[in-house]
Design a protein that fits this description.
With 259 residues, the protein is an alpha/beta fold. It has two domains: 191 residues, 4-Layer Sandwich (Metallo-beta-lactamase, Chain A), CATH 3.60.15; 43 residues, no CATH class. It is 21% helix and 28% strand. The chain contains seven helices and 14 strands. The strands form three sheets. Strands 1, 2, 3, 4, 5, 6, 7 and 8 form an eight-stranded mixed sheet that branches. A four-stranded antiparallel sheet has the order 9-10-11-14, with no helix packed on it. Strands 12-13 form a two-stranded antiparallel ribbon. Strand 12 and strand 13 form a beta hairpin. It comes from Pan troglodytes.
Length: 259
C-alpha cells in the first residue's frame, strides 16, 4: 500500500508567512487523515497537491489554539466543496474531551450548517493528565443538544493493560492514542498498517515453470492458487514432486508504522 506524509505546518504558537501552525496529512489509498489543524491549515492545503474533500479522519493532539483553531474553518470549506453530496461518509474527528463542545459552540454561534455529517470521538484523560475539577469544565455539553449534522461519537477510555486508547481496528490499520504530558491533556497517535499478502509475479511464475531446476512444469496458471496462500509453504503435487511457494510471489510482509 502506498502511504505518504505531508507536513503542512510545523510551527509553534502561531503561523508565520513561511511556516504554518501544526498540521500533518497522512495519505493512503485515496484518503487523507489530518493530524492537528492549526490556524491557516486550509491555506497550506491549497498550496499543496492535497484536496480538503479527501479528508476522512481528523486527529487533534490537544486543545491549544495552534493545534486546532483551524478546524472550524476547514470543516466549513469542506462543506462548501461538497455541494449537495449528502451521501459523503461522516468525517470522524478524534481528540481530547472538550473538542466536541468547541465544534458545537462554534457552529452554533456562527449559524453554520454543514452539508455533511461528522462524528466526534473524545478521549478521556487520566487523573495525572487532568484534575477531575478541570475535566468537569470541559465536558458540560448536554448530548441532547447535538447539532443536526453531528452523529453520536464514542467516549474512549484508557485501556490500562495496553496503556493506550484504541481508536479503531479495521482490515488495514490499527490506530491508537497514547498519553502525553503537557500543560493540558495531550495525546500522541500511532498508525500501524497490518501485514498484507504479497502479489504474485505471473511472469516469474511462467519462467520458473519452464526452468529445469524447478523439477516441475506448471501448465499455464493451473496451480497459481497454491502459491497465493500465505499459510502454504509447499504442496505435494504427486509422490516425489513438491511445489515450493517461494520465489514467484513478491514480499507482502510487514505493514508500515507511523507515530
Amino acid at each position: 500500500m502506498s502511504m505518504d506524509v505531508t507536513f503542512l505546518g510545523t510551527g509553534a504558537a502561531y503561523p508565520s508567512p513561511t511556516r504554518g501552525a501544526s498540521a500533518v496529512v497522512l495519505r493512503c489509498e485515496g484518503e487523507c487523515w489530518l493530524f492537528d489543524c492549526g490556524e491557516g491549515t486550509q491555506t497550506q492545503l491549497m498550496k499543496s497537491q492535497l484536496k480538503a474533500g479527501r479528508i476522512t479522519k481528523i486527529f487533534i493532539t490537544h486543545l491549544h489554539g495552534d493545534h486546532f483553531f483551524g478546524l472550524p474553518g476547514l470543516l466549513c470549506t469542506i462543506s462548501l466543496q461538497s455541494g449537495s453530496m449528502v451521501s459523503k461518509q461522516p468525517i470522524e474527528i478524534y481528540g481530547p474531551v472538550g473538542l466536541r463542545d468547541f465544534i458545537w459552540r462554534t457552529m452554533e454561534l456562527s449559524h453554520t450548517e454543514l452539508v455533511f455529517h461528522y462524528v466526534v470521538h473524545e478521549l478521556v484523560p487520566t487523573a495525572d493528565q487532568c484534575p477531575a475539577e478541570e475535566l468537569k469544565e470541559f465536558a458540560h455539553v448536554n448530548r441532547a443538544d447535538s447539532p443536526p449534522k453531528e452523529e453520536q461519537g464514542r467516549t474512549i477510555l484508557l485501556d490500562s493493560e495496553e496503556n493506550s486508547y484504541l481508536l479503531f481496528d479495521d482490515e488495514q490499520f490499527v490506530v491508537k492514542a497514547f498519553r502525553l504530558f503537557h500543560r493540558i491533556p495531550s495525546f500522541g497517535f500511532s498508525v500501524v498498517e497490518k501485514k498484507r499478502p504479497g502479489k504474485l509475479n505471473a511472469q516469474k511464475l511462467k519462467d520458473l515453470g519452464k526452468c529445469f531446476f524447478c523439477f516441475l512444469f506448471f501448465p499455464p496458471f493451473s496451480s497459481i492458487g497454491l502459491l497465493l496462500t500465505e499459510a502454504i509453504r509447499s504442496v505435494i503435487v504427486r509422490p516425489g514432486v513438491v511445489a515450493h511457494a517461494c520465489n514467484p510471489s513478491t514480499l507482502g510482509g510487514r505493514g508500515g508504522r507511523i507515530t
